[in-house]
Amino acid sequence: MTGRREEVLDAAIEVLGTGGLRRLTYQAVDAAAGVPQGTTSNHFRNRDLLVEGVVTHIATLDARDWGTFAETPAAGDPAELAGALARVVQHVLGPARSRTAARYALALEGIARPTVREPLNRARESLIDLTSAWLRELGSPTPLEDCRTLFTYLEGLIFQHVTTPRESFDPEPGIRTVLSALLPDGADGRGGREG
Fold first, then answer.
1. C-alpha dihedral over 135, 139, 141, 147, to 10 degrees?
2. Average pLDDT in the 103-122 region?
């Protein structure tokens, strides 16, 4: 039954990401998943549990994707980190766009609901911890603080392109610029240092 539960959660993310929180109903999720009516309610006895299940599933998928698209950059090479982060941005704006939109809908819901906000925050902090370790390897004197700045930039960039997409968009130059500002000696994000 684990497979069916994941199907339901994947469909719930799609419904949430394309239709918003008001469209997230058992019937809509069952239809999107192509499962018999009542399947979603069998796995999630009330809507709050469904929303919490979606939050947890998004965090799991994000962690999996982060590992896939942002492999540990080579020590001392900002270009590797810039490239890895650009791949993540392209993924969350492309194949994972519905998940990204769902995360934003949940973030707004989390303002009033700690059961939604707290798991989203924990997932974000986990990714910040991972990335701050990379910044430490690249010589950042304040890797956690620098990583929070980097994530603020990335989140704003992603939000802008979810709400007002452009057809051709390369996130890497902007990411290199931010890394250059954060890393010592003006690391240029291409693996070298500016003169």
1. -10
2. 92
Instruction: State the SS3 of 136-174.
Output: HHCCCCCHHHHHHHHHHHHHHHHHHHHHCCCCCCCCHHH
- Domain positions in the chain are 54-186
- Written out in words, the top-level CATH class of the domain with range 54-186 is mainly alpha
Say what percent of the chain tops pLDDT 70. 90
